[in-house]
Amino acid sequence: MSTQSALLKVMSDAARKAARGLNRDFGELNELQVSRKGAADYVSAADHKAEQTLFEALAKARPGYSFLGEERGLIEGTDKTHTWIVDPLDGTTNFLHAIPHFAINIALQREGAIVAAVTYNPITNELFWAEKGKGCFVNDKRLRVAARTRLDESVLATGIPFLGHGQHAKFLKELHQISQRVSGVRRFGAASLDLAFVAAGRFDGFWERDLKPWDMAAGMLLVTEAGGKVTSADGDEDILEKGSILAANLDLHPAVLEKLNLAA
Fold it and tell me: Does 203 reside within a domain?
């Protein structure tokens, strides 16, 4: 059984606290499906409320740390070496449609490196967490990336560009290169959980472009601490700056990257 450090406990407690509000709001969503604008406004309010809860809990536990959140942007703290990178609700569209697949994400960046991560799905009560050099876990169970070495036996996850976002033509080329060579491609609608599932060995790999730092920061550490490899979708290390990601085990990463390069 694993024991969380004081830092991980702070992050996990904050995520669970924010989750209580999201769970309540998720239960109300079916009532709001009739009015699209009403439901969207409701989700926006839920999102802001969750981020406020996270902001207050993390600021109380670690005063002075900077905070980069999806809703409020960057708030610089007095401690320039530490930044929380937070997404209070990844998978907003799922949430809006009462699909129980979304997550709260908290990552801690220290001097440019991600050193601690929490990704929490409140509906399944799965808390994925990792600390640099100490492994990756879901609740109390140690995680390892899948051991598959062949693309034709692999299931990969991705994100499909949608209205007003992303490079649709490029994505279709990449999908064409990959889908004919793998056992399956999945699109679940929450990048953070896709990465957590790679860490857990449920997916063999994941790639997506046009992401934000808060979509990827926690999942990057989960995968590497579970023994996987993470780069940008072009194969370099500037993941948060480039806004794209490719995560897989050490055998499959180069194979997937080769297929993505063919689509370039």
Answer: yes
Residue type, 121: N
| Distance between CA atoms of residues 119 and 129, nearest Å | 6
**Residue 1 domain-assigned?**
no
Together in a domain, 17 and 76:
yes
Residue 69 near residue 51, CB atoms below 8 Å: yes
pLDDT tens figures, 173-214: 999 999 999 999 999 999 999 999 999 999 999 999 999 999
Strand pairing report for 65-69 and 73-75: antiparallel
Co-location of 45 and 137 in the same domain: yes
Helix 252-262, helix 168-179: angle, nearest 10: 130
Tokens of 114: 């991600």
Task: Kindly report the CATH number assigned to the domain that includes residue 245.
Answer: 3.40.190.80
Residues 45 and 87 placed together within one structural domain of the fold: yes
Q: Which residues contact 143 (CB under 8 A, 6 or more apart)?
A: 128, 135, 136, 137, 199, 200, 201, 222, 226
Output the CA torsion 63→69→75→77 (10° steps): 30
- Which tens digit of pLDDT belongs to each residue from 225-257? 999 999 999 999 999 999 999 999 999 999 999
C-alpha distances in angstroms, 189 versus 13, 160, 253? 25, 8, 22
Q: What's the pTM value of the predicted model, to 2 decimals?
A: 0.95
Sign of CA dihedral 207, 210, 213, 214: negative
- Judged by DSSP in three states, 108 sits in strand
Give how far Cα 159 sits from Cα of 4, 166, 168, 172, Å: 31, 10, 11, 11
Domain that holds residue 179: 151-262
